[in-house]
Amino acid sequence: MVSKQPRKQHLALYSAPLHRRHRFLSASLSRELRGKHKTRSLPVRKGDKVRIIQGDFKKHEGDVLEVNTKRRRIQVQGATTTKADGTQVTRLLSPSNVVLIKLVSDKERDKVLERRSKGGEKGSK
């Protein structure tokens, strides 16, 4: 974000193209993953295992079923609510309310993690 003005931040957030909104869907890594990968957060992907740290489903762990870049929300397996007619619906959660505890690896993500883990090695002696 460039501006400090809330109206400009809001406009930038909601008018961002979908390929850039993927960056807004980042979640913190657990302590073990932070130590292993030397990075603090990563964008959430379908199949990742997360722990919910805030809200009605606090301390619940489950797999990510869907990542909605349009609404900036994720669906976690087991985080469901009951509608008035009795049907179960998965609750949409903000990725800021979850911690990644197990990552799904693929070629692209492995490259990102490798690049980030080398972070400060170039300039140091």
Shape: globular
Strand content: 25-35%
| Low-confidence blocks of residues | none
- CATH class descriptor of the domain at 27-104: Mainly Beta
Q: How would a textbook summarize the main sheet?
A: 7 strands, mixed
Task: Summarize the helices and strands and which ones pair or pack.
Layout: H1 6-14, H2 18-21, E1 26-29, H3 31-37, E2 41-43, E3 49-52, E4 61-68, E5 73-82, E6 88-93, E7 98-102, H4 107-117
Parallel strand pairs: 1-7
Antiparallel strand pairs: 1-2, 3-4, 3-7, 4-5, 5-6
What does this structure look like?
By secondary structure, the protein is α+β, with helices and mostly antiparallel strands. It has a domain at 27-104: SH3 type barrels. The protein has helices at residues 6-14, 18-21, 31-37, 107-117; strands at residues 26-29, 41-43, 49-52, 61-68, 73-82, 88-93, 98-102. A seven-stranded mixed sheet has the order 2-1-7-3-4-5-6. The longest helix has 11 residues, at 107-117. The mean pLDDT is 92.
Summarize, please.
By secondary structure, this protein is α+β, with helices and mostly antiparallel strands.
Primary descriptors:
single chain, alpha+beta, globular, SH3 type barrels, 4 helices, 7 strands, seven-stranded mixed beta sheet, 125 residues
